[in-house]
Amino acid sequence: MSAAERYNIHSQLEHLQSKYVGTGHADTTRYEWVVNQHRDSIASYIGHDNLLSYFGVVENETKARVKFNLLQKLLQPCGPPPPKREDL
Fold first, then answer.
1. How many CA atoms does the CB half-sphere of 1 hold within 13 Å?
2. What is the CA radius of gyration of the chain?
3. Which ranges in the chain belong to alpha helices (H)?
4. Residue bearing the bigger pLDDT, 15 or 30
5. How far apart are CA 20 and CA 28, in angstroms?
6. pLDDT value of residue 82
7. CA separation (Å) from 45 to 35, 65, 71?
8. Residue 88 has what pLDDT?
9. More confident call, 2 vs 62
10. Which of 39, 46, 52, 61 could form a disulfide with 65, with the two C-beta atoms 3.0–4.6 Å apart?
11. Under 8 Å between Cβ of 42 and 74
12. CA pair distance 12, 57, nearest whole angstrom
C-alpha cells in the first residue's frame, strides 16, 4: 500500500467520523462506543413494531409499556459514565 492510498483511506475515515456520530473517532472511549451501540439498538427496536410486539409477549407487558421502558433506557443505557482520569 502506497502512502497516497493510506492518506486517501485515512481522509475517507475522517470524513465518515465527522459525518456520523456513531462511527467514533480517535478519542472515543470504550464507554462512549458502547453507549452509541446500545442507543442504536434500542432505537431500532422502537422503530420496528414487530419487535415491540415480540418483547411485549416475552415480558408479558403491553407494547406501549415496552416502548416506554425502552425510551427510559435511552437516557443512560449503560449506567452512569465512569469517572474520568482527570477526576481521579
1. 6
2. 18
3. 3-19, 30-47, 49-59, 63-73
4. 30
5. 13
6. 87
7. 15, 13, 10
8. 54
9. 62
10. 61
11. yes
12. 44
Long-range contacts of 55-61, Cβ-Cβ distance < 8 Å, separation of 24 or more: none
Task: Give residue-wise pLDDT tens across range 16-60.
Answer: 777 776 677 777 888 988 998 999 999 999 999 999 999 999 999
C-alpha cell of 64?
A: 406501549
Q: Find cell 413494531 and name the residue.
A: 49
pLDDT of the residue at 18 = 77
Neighbouring C-beta atoms of residue 66, cutoff 10 Å: 21
Identify the pLDDT of residue 14: 79
CA 47 to chain centre: 15
Q: How far apart are CA 77 and CA 63, in angstroms?
A: 19
Residue in this structure with the C-alpha cell 482527570, named with its chain if needed: 86
Can you say whether the dihedral through the CA atoms of 53, 55, 60, 64 is positive or negative? Answer: negative
Is 31 strand, coil or helix? helix
